[in-house]
Amino acid sequence: MKPNHENLGDLLMEIQAAKEDGYLTGLSYLDTSRGIGPVLDKLPYGLQEKWVSSWSWYKEENNGCFPPFSYFCNFVCHEAKKRNDPSA
Fold this sequence. Notes:
The chain has helices spanning 4-21, 33-40, 45-61, 69-83. By secondary structure, it is mainly alpha-helical. The chain has one domain (4-83).
């Protein structure tokens, strides 16, 4: 069985794919800080802190725009991959 972070990453990627299909327009809410807040709250504190640094950098590089859900998905998947690397 996969660790929780990797399972969450897989689930987020499935949601991202559904969002990209365009049939569930309500999923655009996930492109806001309020939209990802409940998911973010489920992450360990250390990852929440890393996310704050990550979105802050994103906003600086993108004229103050909050990062899209796809950026959050990539962040979670990248962190899960690092934590599950057997050579680490």
